[in-house]
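README: folding subset

This subset contains proteins for which both the sequence and a predicted structure token string are available. Records are stored as plain text. Below is the entry for KIB1-4 beta-propeller domain-containing protein (311 residues), shown exactly as it appears on disk.
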Amino acid sequence: MEEEKKPDESLSIKTQSSPCLIFFYEMKKQRYQTFFNLSKGCYIRNIEQMQNVMCFPTPQGWMLIVHPHDKYCYLFDPLTMSKKNLPSLHLEAGPITNLVCVLSSSPTEENCTVLCADMDKKLLFFCQDGDTKWTFYKYNLGDHNLSNVAACDGKFYGLTMQVNFATIDCSPNPRINILEPLNFHWPVGTSATISYLVESCGEMYSVERYKRAYKSNKTTHISVKKRDSSRQAWDTVYSIGGRVILLGWDDSSASWSASELGVKGDCIYYVETNDKRVYCFDLEEGCISVHMPCPRLQPSGLTPIWILPAS
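--- output ---
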């Protein structure tokens, strides 16, 4: 395994063209980021834009950066250092707790919509290029509550805690429309699950990560379903087209070409809370393997996040 490099020996981020997992840690009162590439190993950076801020990844690679005091925010690509300003959140959003962010397209394109979902507050807020403020939508779905959001072909979709699929309309009339249930079957010996909604090559997938108990830090099984839009139904699959799915701790997720990463396809990569290891679930074999990406990595209490090259 490639040895973790010191900051002054690190590879240039601009040379990286595939997803990385970022681990955060502090050294000499500076916050550094250890970037782990599944096929190229680890290297360390100190990115000023990621200091003392809240960082929320998107499946499109751009990262939502929010300053905790004045709520100044922007989209940031840590691989190319590109930046796209957004309206400040001010006080309307309140304290940000459990946020997921997705984009309808690349923010360099016209009519790109940035959608954020605060799951704890049942709050959506979104903006488009040129907007001077965010639009806020406090939703009420009765017994339902969103747990995940995703974008596909310029449209937004959601997954509820009751594991129902939903469409999300933003401007001009915000609305959430609950559609069909996914009907997952719990494996024997599990009593807790984390759900993800993932777009991959224009297809919608749902991933269920099962655990023995709610506070357990060990995943025992992963199940994947693919949506058949013509039937409005979800079918269990054991292949995701030779790609991999990357699951974050905060309900974020993304997919990528396994061949470009140099790893086996049809696998799910994920991390556990307060754990510096990377896990891989092989859909075909039904087994879990463990990667120890950066042996000398010091734990910081901050959970790592996946980032992709920005689209």
